[in-house]
Design goal:
The protein is an alpha+beta fold. The chain is built from 6 helices and 6 strands, in the order αααββαββαββα. The strands form 3 sheets. The protein has a two-stranded antiparallel sheet with strand order 1-2. Strands 3-4 form a two-stranded antiparallel ribbon. Helix 5 runs antiparallel to helix 6 (148-160).
């Protein structure tokens, strides 16, 4: 109980995993995606050095282990360590949870993949644009059912700030 009170879950060492459970390729992809200068150093450092610089490896030098956040972000199958790590996307085509029908899609993978895949699905399947042509002007107006920026913010916040 004292561990839970002092060290957030993400920052805890995972003793059921090894350094080899962190994928340098996923780490590099992430660093390139966020535009980190550390991406240029990846070919020149060991996976252990990379993990330490990224703050996803902890412990003493003679007993290093990945942190939970490292496994969630940079393991291709994080559900092996966190069985319910996924996004369950549920939508109600008839306008709300009071309806009799709903559809769902489950996304699995490391955190960057979860976010990217779920946002791509939402953009391609659930966001629609209504184009309104005006008789008195050449330009039409477009209105979307949900603003993409707000959806992205909601998904990212749900993933990074999930508490239960």
């Amino acid at each position: 109980m004292s561990l839970a009170a002092n060290i957030p879950f993400d920052d805890r060492i995972n003793l059921r995993a090894g350094i080899g459970d962190l994928s340098p390729a996923l780490m590099l992809d992430y660093l390139q995606e966020v535009g980190s200068d550390l991406a240029k150093q990846v070919p020149h450092v060991s996976p252990v050095e990379l993990g330490q610089q990224m703050g996803v490896i902890g412990g003493h030098s003679e007993a290093l282990f990945p942190l939970n956040i490292g496994l969630m972000m940079f393991n291709p199958e994080p559900w092996r360590f966190f069985p319910f790590m996924q996004i369950d996307l549920v939508w109600f085509p008839n306008g709300g949870p009071g309806g009799n029908t709903f559809s769902e899609k489950i996304f699995k993978g490391p955190v960057p993949t979860l976010i990217r895949d779920s946002l791509d699905f939402i953009r391609h399947h659930l966001i629609f644009e209504l184009v309104i042509k005006h008789p008195d002007r050449a330009m039409s107006a477009g209105v979307v059912n949900f603003p993409c920026a707000a959806i992205k913010e909601a998904v990212v916040n749900a993933v990074y700030h999930q508490t239960s």
